[in-house]
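Sorry to interrupt, but I need a hand with the structure work. Go ahead and set the record down below:
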Amino acid sequence: MSHMTGAEKIGVLVSAICHDVCHPGRTNAFLAAIHDPVAIRFGNQSILEHYSIAATFDIMKNKRCDFSSGLGKEGFAEFRDFVCALILDTDMTKTVPHLHDLESSIRNYKDECTKASRARTTLPPSFYASAANRRKVLGTLLHAADISGSTKPVTIAKKWAASILKEMKEESDEVIREGIKGVRTMGDDIPRGQLFFIDTFV
């Protein structure tokens, strides 16, 4: 926290609040397959994430919702870039490459530290002096929080799972009904699907 700028502190809160704003309950793959106007607008790239970013900054045009009003022009530019980066990090297709990138940054930094001090075994505060490193770490934390429903107490986890499974079933039913190609449908073995998601991502 001590290394974070004011724009980053506000940005991570706004990203957490708004990363799924205007989400229609369908996946990026579905929207791309049906040539949805939103998919066309964003070139089939991180469709829902770009949609949420655009909606966030549209909402912030209302002065009552402008959390960045005290940042100034440079601060706003930093804030906007930060929010865009963090929300884009919630795209599930970027999970593995994002983690590899973060791990590479940590490994490289540790290698440099080892050369200077053989005794160093953990990341020092100076690692977070890099804006790029802070962005990677906070993006990972936001994404982890986004898919953390399974880590909550059972009563809460069940509610999250039920809500997500309802969306998945509705999309699967529409895919089958309309004969939409290129979109994976929901399997019948829900427990196995949940375990796969937990083991693979959570």
